[in-house]
Each structure stands twice: as C-alpha cells, then as structure tokens.
Amino acid sequence: MHTNHLLELNSNENSLGMSASARQAIIDSLDIGFRYPDDQRAKLISKIAEINGVAEDQVSLGNGSIENVGTVVHMLQDKALNTARQLQVVVPDPTFDCAQRYAESIGVAVVKVPLTADDYQLDFHNLQQAAEEFEGISLFYLCNPNNPTATITATAELKAWVENAPDNHYFLLDEAYSEYITDPSFESAIEWVKQRLSDNIIVVRTFSKLCALAGMRIGYAIANAPTTAAISSFVSLDNTNLAGAVAVLATLEDQAFLQLSLQVTNQSRQMIETELQKLGLRYLPSQANFIFHEIKGDVKTYIDRMRENGILVGREFLPITGYSRLTLGTADEMQVFVKVLQSFRQKGWV
To answer: For 214-272, what is each residue's pLDDT tens digit?
Structure first.
C-alpha cells in the first residue's frame, strides 16, 4: 500500500512542512544549480559556528547527521587499527540504531546495555562497566533526548561521567531533538566541547526536525578542531547539496517559522498527554517531537490496526514491550489520531 494517503506519524518528521522562506530559497537557487555549492556550504558552516558559539574549524557538515555519526565510527576504527587496538560501540537499548548499523557494517562489535527497568533511563553503571572490561577504544553513542523514549539524560551525572572518563573512551552525543527541550536542567554537550571538558566529545545535530528539512539531508558535528578534522576526512566529498544549504540558511533566519514549529509541537504534545491521561495510559516525559506511550497490548497488532485506520505509528522498540512511539504532528493530525485511539479503547484494544 502506498503511504501518500496515510497519516505518517512514524518517522519523527515535521508535518508542518518546510518554511515558505526555505521553499523560496530553493526556487531562487535553481538558476545556479549547475554550479558547485562551495560558497553556500562555506556560508552554512559559518552560520552554524556562529549560532553555536564555536570556531568554523569545529564544524563538520554531514548529509544529514546520520553521515556525521558514520564518520565518527569510521574515524575511531581507523584510529584503533593504526594503534593495534580494537574498537567497540556501546549503546543504550533501545536507542536510534544508526551507530550500531555503521559499526556492524565494518565489523565493529556493538554492546547493547538495556535502559533501566523502572523509568527507561541510561544505566550509567552498566554502560561504564561495558567499557571498563574492554582494553581497546570504546565509543558511547548517546542520543539525548533518547529515541524512542523522548527523555533526556540527567545532565550532572552525564557531565561527570564524560569529564572523568579515560582517554580511550569517546562520547558521541546525538542531539537531534535538542531544540524541543523545555527542561531547564538540560545542558548541551556543545557547551562541554567549548569548556574543553574532554577532547573525546563529538556532538551531532540535524536540520531535519524543528527546521522541517528531513528531505534536504543537512546535519553537522561539533568537536574540538583536531577531532573535527579527523572525522571530516571520512565525510563523502562534496556532500552538501545546494538546495539543502540554501534551505537551511533561509530557515535559520526565519524566527517566526521556528517559533511556530516549536509551538505546534508543544500544543500537540499537550493534546496527546491529556488524552493519554484520560485513558490511563502511561507515557514518558517527552522532550522531543514524539512521545513514547503505553498501549497495554501487543505492539505489532496495534501498529497493524492503526494502519488499517489510516495511521502509521512507530515500530516496536525491543526490549521494551507494550509501548508505542508516536510522532507529534499538527493539531489536525493529532485530532485524527485521538479519535482512532478512543475507538480502540471502546473495542478494548488499548
């Protein structure tokens, strides 16, 4: 079945769609589509450095932040091979699986550490233990807020861990959803890079979420300058397309759109939380553009039933069972979802 007529609440995209300013910027760039986008790429790096308060040589552009994750894995595998060591990638379970997939594609071992059983948070003790028992290089891939749980990790505890880690432990912090965070206790790891808390911190971010440019494939990594140079050597050459670059630049200047984008997600989150409370379905405190909630049933059956009702929801995220991940779309989309969910309750399905 083609998905065009289905409500797509399964990939954490921004249903608002790209800004009018981004659309116009792409149209305006068509006349120079035959040129390489060197100038636009340079301008984008400069803008990213400016908004994050870092130097330009600390920014590495990616074809989506997923490419940046891949460059970190490849860079550390190269470092391990050149120093006669091994690399392992340590990940919470469940989490976004791109680091795992990159690692497995080049034969790097992946160690999965389950989230805590009670509140689905990082298990700091077991994550550290997985690295302490390994003599080579360990890369911790930490999605913060985590995907699929949409929860943030305790800043003080995470910061202390990173600061006191040995030289063979690296931290890749994926902050794809950072713009949605409302919890005042959160501190971006970009601040830790600037503070020189550790030389082994790499932070990746994306323009796919709040900026609604998932199809344009622009993301970036920030680290200290030597690390940025090292990971950039594994980036595909000319990896920034003209349309994506100009769309991001236009969106970053469009404060009205960015505020609207955030407002829409916040309103939708509130609507869904209210409904889940009415139905007595537990949900985790979302700091992202999706929410992880209980369904009290088989997830695969729930997904199939939602699809039969014209809605795509997130896949199952084992080892957690009985929970579904819902992308927070527009208010209209959420109203459609709520009606279907209510009908499921009437049928005793949730």
So the answer is: 999 999 999 999 999 999 999 999 999 999 999 999 999 999 999 999 999 999 999 99
Predicted structure pTM score: 0.96
List pLDDT tens digits, range 53-101: 999 999 999 999 999 999 999 999 999 999 999 999 999 999 999 999 9
Q: Measuring CA to CA, which residue among 259, 277, 279 is closest to residue 269?
A: 277
Query: How many CA atoms within 13 Å lie on the side-chain side of 127?
Result: 24
Q: How remote is the C-alpha of 219 from its chain's centroid?
A: 10
Are 71 and 221 spatial neighbours (Cβ–Cβ below 8 Å)? Answer: yes
Show the domains of the chain with their CATH numbers.
Answer: 7-16+256-346 (3.90.1150.10), 20-253 (3.40.640.10)
Distance from C-alpha of 25 to C-alpha of 197, rounded to nearest angstrom: 38
**Model pLDDT for residues 26-45, shown as the tens digit of each residue:** 999 999 999 999 999 999 99
The percent helix, strand, coil of the chain (3-state, each to 5) is: 45, 15, 40
How far apart are the C-alpha atoms of 253 and 285, rounded to whole Å? 30
In the chain, where does DSSP find H-type helix?
A: 20-29, 38-52, 65-82, 98-105, 124-132, 155-164, 189-194, 225-232, 242-253, 255-279, 299-308, 331-346
For 105, other C-beta atoms within 10 Å of its C-beta total 11
Burial class (CB within 10 angstroms; exposed 0-12, middle 13-18, buried 19+) of 51? exposed
